[in-house]
Model the fold of this input.
Amino acid sequence: MISEANLGSNYCGIRLEQNAENGLYKVRFPEKMDGQGYGKVNPTSTLPWDMPWRTVISGKSLSTIFESQLINNVSNEPVSRDFSWVKPGRASWSWISNPASCRDFNALKDFVDLSAEMKWEYSLVDANRNEMQGGNIEQLVKYANTKGVGIIMWYNSGGPNNIVTEGPRDIMSDTIKRKAEFKKLQQWGVKGVKVDFWQSDKQITIQQYHDLMEDAAECHILVGLHGCTIPRGWSKTYPNMNSMESIKGEECYRFDTTYTDNAPIQNTIIPFTRNVIGPMDYTPFGISNLKFPYKTTFAHELAITIVFNNGIIHFTESAEGIRKLPEFVKSFLVEVPATFDESHLVSGYPGKDIIIASRKGNTWYIAGINGENETKKMDVKLPFLKKGKYQINFITDGADGKSFQNKKSIMKSMENLSVTFLPNGGFVAILKTL
Done:
Protein backbone atom coordinates (compact mmCIF):
# COMPACT_ATOMS: atom_id res chain seq x y z
CA MET A 1 0.00 0.00 0.00
CA ILE A 2 1.80 3.14 -1.25
CA SER A 3 0.78 6.60 -0.11
CA GLU A 4 1.96 9.86 1.46
CA ALA A 5 1.66 11.37 4.93
CA ASN A 6 2.28 14.53 6.95
CA LEU A 7 2.06 16.86 3.97
CA GLY A 8 2.72 20.37 5.24
CA SER A 9 2.10 23.74 3.65
CA ASN A 10 5.66 23.84 2.34
CA TYR A 11 5.19 21.17 -0.33
CA CYS A 12 2.78 20.00 -3.02
CA GLY A 13 0.80 16.78 -3.12
CA ILE A 14 2.33 14.15 -5.40
CA ARG A 15 1.03 11.04 -7.10
CA LEU A 16 2.50 8.14 -9.06
CA GLU A 17 2.76 8.35 -12.84
CA GLN A 18 0.12 6.02 -14.25
CA ASN A 19 2.34 4.39 -16.88
CA ALA A 20 5.13 2.33 -15.30
CA GLU A 21 7.66 1.95 -18.10
CA ASN A 22 9.63 -1.29 -17.60
CA GLY A 23 7.78 -1.74 -14.29
CA LEU A 24 9.20 1.48 -12.82
CA TYR A 25 6.74 3.96 -11.30
CA LYS A 26 7.79 7.60 -11.16
CA VAL A 27 6.70 10.40 -8.85
CA ARG A 28 4.47 12.90 -10.63
CA PHE A 29 3.94 16.51 -9.59
CA PRO A 30 0.75 18.52 -10.21
CA GLU A 31 0.05 19.63 -13.76
CA LYS A 32 0.64 23.26 -14.75
CA MET A 33 -3.06 23.87 -15.57
CA ASP A 34 -4.43 22.24 -12.42
CA GLY A 35 -6.54 24.72 -10.49
CA GLN A 36 -7.05 26.93 -13.57
CA GLY A 37 -3.28 27.41 -13.75
CA TYR A 38 -3.28 29.06 -10.31
CA GLY A 39 0.01 28.60 -8.44
CA LYS A 40 3.42 27.18 -9.27
CA VAL A 41 4.00 23.48 -9.92
CA ASN A 42 7.32 23.17 -8.07
CA PRO A 43 7.23 23.74 -4.31
CA THR A 44 9.63 26.09 -2.55
CA SER A 45 10.73 26.45 1.07
CA THR A 46 13.27 27.97 3.38
CA LEU A 47 15.78 25.61 5.02
CA PRO A 48 15.59 23.30 6.89
CA TRP A 49 12.96 21.76 4.63
CA ASP A 50 10.73 19.16 6.28
CA MET A 51 9.13 17.17 3.48
CA PRO A 52 6.20 14.71 3.64
CA TRP A 53 6.65 11.01 4.25
CA ARG A 54 6.31 8.59 1.34
CA THR A 55 4.82 5.51 2.95
CA VAL A 56 4.74 1.80 2.11
CA ILE A 57 2.54 -0.56 4.13
CA SER A 58 3.42 -4.22 3.59
CA GLY A 59 2.48 -7.42 5.36
CA LYS A 60 1.79 -11.13 5.05
CA SER A 61 -1.98 -10.68 5.20
CA LEU A 62 -4.54 -8.11 4.11
CA SER A 63 -5.34 -7.37 7.77
CA THR A 64 -1.92 -5.71 8.07
CA ILE A 65 -3.01 -3.13 5.50
CA PHE A 66 -6.65 -2.84 6.55
CA GLU A 67 -5.79 -2.21 10.22
CA SER A 68 -2.70 -0.05 9.63
CA GLN A 69 -2.35 3.32 11.40
CA LEU A 70 0.93 4.21 9.67
CA ILE A 71 -0.39 7.39 8.02
CA ASN A 72 -1.43 8.78 11.41
CA ASN A 73 1.62 7.45 13.22
CA VAL A 74 4.09 9.45 11.10
CA SER A 75 1.98 12.62 11.05
CA ASN A 76 2.40 15.59 13.37
CA GLU A 77 0.68 15.73 16.72
CA PRO A 78 -2.28 18.13 17.02
CA VAL A 79 -1.51 21.79 17.40
CA SER A 80 -1.58 22.81 21.05
CA ARG A 81 -5.21 23.62 21.89
CA ASP A 82 -8.33 22.02 23.34
CA PHE A 83 -10.14 19.74 20.89
CA SER A 84 -12.61 18.25 23.38
CA TRP A 85 -15.43 19.96 21.46
CA VAL A 86 -14.85 17.78 18.37
CA LYS A 87 -17.76 15.34 18.14
CA PRO A 88 -18.01 12.65 15.44
CA GLY A 89 -21.54 11.76 14.46
CA ARG A 90 -24.23 11.19 11.84
CA ALA A 91 -25.89 13.67 9.48
CA SER A 92 -28.95 13.96 7.27
CA TRP A 93 -28.27 15.29 3.76
CA SER A 94 -30.92 16.70 1.45
CA TRP A 95 -29.02 17.46 -1.77
CA ILE A 96 -28.49 13.91 -2.98
CA SER A 97 -32.20 13.01 -2.99
CA ASN A 98 -33.38 16.51 -3.98
CA PRO A 99 -30.74 18.94 -5.34
CA ALA A 100 -33.27 21.80 -5.34
CA SER A 101 -33.82 21.41 -1.59
CA CYS A 102 -30.81 23.56 -0.71
CA ARG A 103 -32.72 26.61 -1.99
CA ASP A 104 -35.86 25.67 -0.02
CA PHE A 105 -36.04 26.60 3.68
CA ASN A 106 -38.92 24.23 4.41
CA ALA A 107 -37.23 21.28 2.70
CA LEU A 108 -34.07 21.85 4.73
CA LYS A 109 -36.14 22.23 7.89
CA ASP A 110 -37.60 18.77 7.23
CA PHE A 111 -34.11 17.25 7.16
CA VAL A 112 -33.31 18.98 10.45
CA ASP A 113 -36.45 17.34 11.82
CA LEU A 114 -35.26 14.02 10.44
CA SER A 115 -31.94 14.33 12.29
CA ALA A 116 -33.80 15.15 15.49
CA GLU A 117 -36.11 12.14 15.03
CA MET A 118 -33.16 9.81 14.35
CA LYS A 119 -31.02 11.29 17.12
CA TRP A 120 -28.37 12.20 14.54
CA GLU A 121 -26.02 14.95 15.59
CA TYR A 122 -25.92 16.98 12.36
CA SER A 123 -27.70 18.08 9.20
CA LEU A 124 -25.76 19.18 6.11
CA VAL A 125 -26.92 22.21 4.12
CA ASP A 126 -25.33 21.88 0.69
CA ALA A 127 -24.52 24.17 -2.25
CA ASN A 128 -26.50 27.28 -3.22
CA ARG A 129 -28.11 27.80 0.17
CA ASN A 130 -27.32 31.50 -0.44
CA GLU A 131 -30.29 31.44 -2.88
CA MET A 132 -32.69 30.05 -0.27
CA GLN A 133 -36.42 30.81 -0.55
CA GLY A 134 -38.96 30.79 2.28
CA GLY A 135 -36.41 31.68 4.93
CA ASN A 136 -32.68 32.17 5.38
CA ILE A 137 -29.75 30.22 6.72
CA GLU A 138 -29.59 32.08 10.03
CA GLN A 139 -33.24 31.20 10.71
CA LEU A 140 -32.52 27.56 9.83
CA VAL A 141 -29.56 27.45 12.23
CA LYS A 142 -31.67 28.92 15.02
CA TYR A 143 -34.38 26.32 14.36
CA ALA A 144 -31.81 23.49 14.34
CA ASN A 145 -30.37 24.74 17.64
CA THR A 146 -33.81 24.37 19.26
CA LYS A 147 -33.86 20.75 18.04
CA GLY A 148 -30.36 19.92 19.27
CA VAL A 149 -29.13 19.42 15.70
CA GLY A 150 -25.83 20.90 14.55
CA ILE A 151 -25.77 22.52 11.11
CA ILE A 152 -22.91 21.88 8.68
CA MET A 153 -22.71 24.45 5.88
CA TRP A 154 -21.30 23.99 2.35
CA TYR A 155 -18.80 26.40 0.77
CA ASN A 156 -16.97 26.63 -2.53
CA SER A 157 -13.18 26.71 -1.98
CA GLY A 158 -12.63 29.22 -4.86
CA GLY A 159 -11.10 31.74 -5.45
CA PRO A 160 -8.90 31.74 -8.43
CA ASN A 161 -8.39 27.96 -8.23
CA ASN A 162 -11.75 27.08 -9.83
CA ILE A 163 -14.55 28.45 -12.00
CA VAL A 164 -17.34 26.43 -10.37
CA THR A 165 -20.30 28.79 -9.91
CA GLU A 166 -22.07 27.06 -7.00
CA GLY A 167 -22.10 29.29 -3.98
CA PRO A 168 -21.31 30.69 -1.63
CA ARG A 169 -17.82 31.13 -3.05
CA ASP A 170 -14.87 33.56 -2.74
CA ILE A 171 -14.97 33.34 1.07
CA MET A 172 -12.79 30.35 1.93
CA SER A 173 -10.01 31.53 -0.41
CA ASP A 174 -9.71 34.94 1.26
CA THR A 175 -7.99 34.98 4.66
CA ILE A 176 -9.85 38.01 6.04
CA LYS A 177 -13.27 36.88 4.80
CA ARG A 178 -12.68 33.30 5.97
CA LYS A 179 -11.72 34.29 9.53
CA ALA A 180 -14.70 36.65 9.77
CA GLU A 181 -17.03 33.94 8.44
CA PHE A 182 -15.86 31.38 10.99
CA LYS A 183 -16.35 33.85 13.85
CA LYS A 184 -19.89 34.51 12.62
CA LEU A 185 -20.65 30.80 12.34
CA GLN A 186 -19.36 30.23 15.86
CA GLN A 187 -21.64 32.98 17.18
CA TRP A 188 -24.62 31.45 15.39
CA GLY A 189 -23.87 27.98 16.76
CA VAL A 190 -22.96 26.35 13.42
CA LYS A 191 -20.96 23.17 14.05
CA GLY A 192 -19.08 22.60 10.81
CA VAL A 193 -18.33 23.44 7.19
CA LYS A 194 -18.00 21.33 4.06
CA VAL A 195 -15.57 22.96 1.59
CA ASP A 196 -15.65 21.70 -1.99
CA PHE A 197 -14.00 21.91 -5.45
CA TRP A 198 -10.29 22.22 -4.68
CA GLN A 199 -9.06 21.27 -8.18
CA SER A 200 -5.33 21.19 -7.42
CA ASP A 201 -2.56 19.68 -5.27
CA LYS A 202 -0.16 22.58 -5.85
CA GLN A 203 1.64 24.04 -2.86
CA ILE A 204 -0.50 27.17 -2.79
CA THR A 205 -3.64 25.03 -2.49
CA ILE A 206 -2.08 22.80 0.18
CA GLN A 207 -1.36 26.01 2.09
CA GLN A 208 -5.04 26.96 1.83
CA TYR A 209 -6.05 23.59 3.28
CA HIS A 210 -3.83 24.17 6.32
CA ASP A 211 -4.96 27.76 6.81
CA LEU A 212 -8.60 26.67 6.59
CA MET A 213 -8.22 23.88 9.15
CA GLU A 214 -6.28 26.16 11.52
CA ASP A 215 -8.76 29.05 11.26
CA ALA A 216 -11.70 26.68 11.75
CA ALA A 217 -10.09 25.12 14.83
CA GLU A 218 -9.74 28.55 16.43
CA CYS A 219 -13.51 28.99 16.17
CA HIS A 220 -14.46 25.40 17.11
CA ILE A 221 -15.69 24.58 13.60
CA LEU A 222 -15.54 21.04 12.18
CA VAL A 223 -14.15 20.70 8.65
CA GLY A 224 -15.21 18.33 5.88
CA LEU A 225 -13.39 18.44 2.55
CA HIS A 226 -14.95 17.49 -0.80
CA GLY A 227 -13.58 17.50 -4.33
CA CYS A 228 -10.28 17.33 -2.49
CA THR A 229 -6.92 15.64 -2.23
CA ILE A 230 -6.44 12.30 -0.43
CA PRO A 231 -5.97 12.14 3.37
CA ARG A 232 -2.38 12.63 4.42
CA GLY A 233 -2.60 12.48 8.21
CA TRP A 234 -4.32 15.84 8.62
CA SER A 235 -7.11 14.43 10.80
CA LYS A 236 -4.45 13.71 13.41
CA THR A 237 -2.81 17.14 13.20
CA TYR A 238 -6.18 18.91 13.01
CA PRO A 239 -8.74 16.71 14.83
CA ASN A 240 -11.51 19.08 13.71
CA MET A 241 -10.88 17.86 10.14
CA ASN A 242 -12.73 14.56 10.38
CA SER A 243 -14.24 14.05 6.93
CA MET A 244 -12.75 13.88 3.41
CA GLU A 245 -14.19 12.79 0.09
CA SER A 246 -11.53 11.93 -2.55
CA ILE A 247 -13.64 8.91 -3.53
CA LYS A 248 -16.34 8.14 -6.08
CA GLY A 249 -19.23 7.97 -3.63
CA GLU A 250 -22.97 7.57 -3.94
CA GLU A 251 -23.55 10.99 -5.48
CA CYS A 252 -22.24 9.30 -8.64
CA TYR A 253 -25.61 7.56 -8.93
CA ARG A 254 -26.75 10.96 -10.20
CA PHE A 255 -24.27 11.50 -13.03
CA ASP A 256 -21.93 8.55 -13.72
CA THR A 257 -23.28 5.98 -16.18
CA THR A 258 -20.62 3.40 -15.23
CA TYR A 259 -21.09 3.69 -11.48
CA THR A 260 -24.06 1.35 -11.02
CA ASP A 261 -22.32 -1.71 -12.46
CA ASN A 262 -19.02 -1.00 -10.72
CA ALA A 263 -20.27 -0.07 -7.26
CA PRO A 264 -20.67 -3.59 -5.75
CA ILE A 265 -17.10 -4.48 -6.71
CA GLN A 266 -15.67 -1.06 -5.82
CA ASN A 267 -17.26 -1.27 -2.38
CA THR A 268 -15.18 -4.36 -1.58
CA ILE A 269 -11.95 -2.76 -2.85
CA ILE A 270 -11.89 0.64 -1.15
CA PRO A 271 -11.76 -0.69 2.45
CA PHE A 272 -8.34 -2.12 1.50
CA THR A 273 -7.19 0.99 -0.37
CA ARG A 274 -8.66 4.49 -0.06
CA ASN A 275 -10.15 4.09 3.44
CA VAL A 276 -6.87 2.77 4.86
CA ILE A 277 -5.24 6.19 4.60
CA GLY A 278 -7.93 8.24 6.33
CA PRO A 279 -11.58 9.28 6.68
CA MET A 280 -13.70 8.59 3.58
CA ASP A 281 -16.93 10.48 2.98
CA TYR A 282 -18.60 7.99 0.65
CA THR A 283 -22.09 9.11 1.81
CA PRO A 284 -23.50 5.59 2.33
CA PHE A 285 -26.93 4.00 2.58
CA GLY A 286 -29.03 4.88 -0.39
CA ILE A 287 -31.85 2.48 -1.26
CA SER A 288 -34.14 4.68 -3.37
CA ASN A 289 -32.90 4.78 -6.97
CA LEU A 290 -31.55 8.10 -8.21
CA LYS A 291 -30.84 8.72 -11.92
CA PHE A 292 -29.07 5.36 -12.18
CA PRO A 293 -30.33 2.30 -10.26
CA TYR A 294 -28.61 0.51 -7.39
CA LYS A 295 -27.25 -2.97 -8.12
CA THR A 296 -26.38 -3.41 -4.43
CA THR A 297 -28.99 -4.85 -2.08
CA PHE A 298 -30.62 -3.04 0.83
CA ALA A 299 -28.51 -4.89 3.43
CA HIS A 300 -25.35 -4.19 1.41
CA GLU A 301 -26.13 -0.49 1.68
CA LEU A 302 -26.78 -0.79 5.41
CA ALA A 303 -23.54 -2.70 5.98
CA ILE A 304 -21.30 -0.08 4.38
CA THR A 305 -22.23 2.34 7.16
CA ILE A 306 -19.97 0.07 9.27
CA VAL A 307 -17.50 -1.21 6.65
CA PHE A 308 -16.58 2.34 5.57
CA ASN A 309 -15.12 4.81 8.05
CA ASN A 310 -15.64 8.57 8.25
CA GLY A 311 -15.85 11.01 11.15
CA ILE A 312 -19.37 12.07 10.13
CA ILE A 313 -21.67 9.62 8.32
CA HIS A 314 -23.75 11.54 5.78
CA PHE A 315 -26.67 9.27 4.92
CA THR A 316 -27.73 9.30 1.27
CA GLU A 317 -31.32 8.14 1.67
CA SER A 318 -34.15 10.68 1.50
CA ALA A 319 -36.15 11.78 4.53
CA GLU A 320 -39.20 9.99 3.14
CA GLY A 321 -37.21 6.81 2.58
CA ILE A 322 -35.74 6.84 6.09
CA ARG A 323 -39.13 7.33 7.69
CA LYS A 324 -40.60 4.36 5.76
CA LEU A 325 -37.91 1.93 6.96
CA PRO A 326 -38.83 -0.98 9.25
CA GLU A 327 -38.45 -0.07 12.91
CA PHE A 328 -35.54 -2.49 13.42
CA VAL A 329 -33.58 -0.75 10.64
CA LYS A 330 -34.38 2.71 12.00
CA SER A 331 -33.26 1.54 15.44
CA PHE A 332 -29.94 0.48 13.96
CA LEU A 333 -29.49 3.87 12.26
CA VAL A 334 -30.30 5.63 15.54
CA GLU A 335 -27.57 3.72 17.35
CA VAL A 336 -24.86 3.14 14.72
CA PRO A 337 -21.61 4.82 15.84
CA ALA A 338 -19.50 7.00 13.55
CA THR A 339 -16.26 5.92 15.25
CA PHE A 340 -15.13 2.77 17.02
CA ASP A 341 -12.71 1.68 19.73
CA GLU A 342 -11.20 -1.04 17.54
CA SER A 343 -11.77 -2.68 14.16
CA HIS A 344 -10.62 -5.98 12.65
CA LEU A 345 -10.66 -7.51 9.22
CA VAL A 346 -12.48 -10.84 9.66
CA SER A 347 -12.23 -12.05 6.07
CA GLY A 348 -12.29 -10.83 2.50
CA TYR A 349 -10.43 -10.04 -0.69
CA PRO A 350 -10.61 -6.90 -2.86
CA GLY A 351 -13.25 -7.27 -5.57
CA LYS A 352 -14.87 -10.30 -3.95
CA ASP A 353 -16.21 -9.66 -0.43
CA ILE A 354 -15.28 -8.27 2.96
CA ILE A 355 -16.41 -8.85 6.55
CA ILE A 356 -15.20 -6.61 9.36
CA ALA A 357 -15.83 -6.41 13.11
CA SER A 358 -15.82 -3.11 14.99
CA ARG A 359 -16.33 -2.54 18.72
CA LYS A 360 -17.89 0.44 20.48
CA GLY A 361 -17.83 -0.01 24.24
CA ASN A 362 -19.21 -3.48 24.94
CA THR A 363 -21.07 -3.79 21.63
CA TRP A 364 -19.64 -5.44 18.51
CA TYR A 365 -20.83 -4.57 15.03
CA ILE A 366 -20.11 -7.28 12.46
CA ALA A 367 -20.76 -6.17 8.89
CA GLY A 368 -20.12 -7.69 5.49
CA ILE A 369 -20.71 -7.02 1.81
CA ASN A 370 -20.58 -9.19 -1.29
CA GLY A 371 -19.10 -7.66 -4.44
CA GLU A 372 -19.89 -10.59 -6.69
CA ASN A 373 -23.10 -11.58 -8.45
CA GLU A 374 -23.41 -14.96 -6.75
CA THR A 375 -24.80 -16.36 -3.50
CA LYS A 376 -22.22 -17.18 -0.81
CA LYS A 377 -22.42 -19.05 2.47
CA MET A 378 -19.75 -18.55 5.14
CA ASP A 379 -18.99 -19.58 8.71
CA VAL A 380 -17.39 -16.52 10.27
CA LYS A 381 -14.89 -16.92 13.11
CA LEU A 382 -14.82 -14.20 15.77
CA PRO A 383 -11.73 -15.01 17.89
CA PHE A 384 -11.57 -11.54 19.48
CA LEU A 385 -14.84 -11.96 21.41
CA LYS A 386 -14.48 -12.29 25.17
CA LYS A 387 -15.73 -15.55 26.65
CA GLY A 388 -19.43 -15.61 27.34
CA LYS A 389 -22.81 -15.43 25.64
CA TYR A 390 -23.98 -12.77 23.23
CA GLN A 391 -27.38 -11.52 22.10
CA ILE A 392 -27.28 -11.19 18.30
CA ASN A 393 -29.46 -8.84 16.30
CA PHE A 394 -29.00 -9.98 12.70
CA ILE A 395 -30.15 -7.71 9.83
CA THR A 396 -29.97 -9.32 6.41
CA ASP A 397 -31.53 -9.04 2.98
CA GLY A 398 -35.07 -10.10 2.29
CA ALA A 399 -35.60 -12.70 -0.41
CA ASP A 400 -35.32 -10.25 -3.32
CA GLY A 401 -32.53 -8.05 -1.93
CA LYS A 402 -34.84 -5.03 -1.95
CA SER A 403 -36.14 -5.52 1.57
CA PHE A 404 -34.79 -6.37 5.02
CA GLN A 405 -35.30 -9.19 7.45
CA ASN A 406 -34.41 -9.33 11.13
CA LYS A 407 -33.45 -12.30 13.31
CA LYS A 408 -32.43 -12.45 16.95
CA SER A 409 -30.59 -15.29 18.63
CA ILE A 410 -28.05 -16.23 21.31
CA MET A 411 -24.51 -17.45 20.58
CA LYS A 412 -21.44 -18.40 22.60
CA SER A 413 -18.16 -16.60 21.97
CA MET A 414 -16.43 -19.70 20.56
CA GLU A 415 -19.17 -20.36 17.99
CA ASN A 416 -19.00 -19.31 14.37
CA LEU A 417 -21.46 -16.87 12.84
CA SER A 418 -23.26 -18.41 9.86
CA VAL A 419 -23.77 -15.93 7.04
CA THR A 420 -25.54 -16.16 3.68
CA PHE A 421 -24.80 -13.41 1.17
CA LEU A 422 -27.19 -12.72 -1.67
CA PRO A 423 -25.55 -11.60 -4.94
CA ASN A 424 -24.19 -8.08 -4.26
CA GLY A 425 -25.70 -8.50 -0.79
CA GLY A 426 -24.73 -7.75 2.76
CA PHE A 427 -25.53 -8.10 6.45
CA VAL A 428 -25.10 -6.45 9.83
CA ALA A 429 -24.92 -8.30 13.15
CA ILE A 430 -24.99 -6.43 16.45
CA LEU A 431 -23.56 -8.45 19.34
CA LYS A 432 -24.18 -7.48 22.97
CA THR A 433 -22.91 -9.39 25.98
CA LEU A 434 -25.43 -11.16 28.22
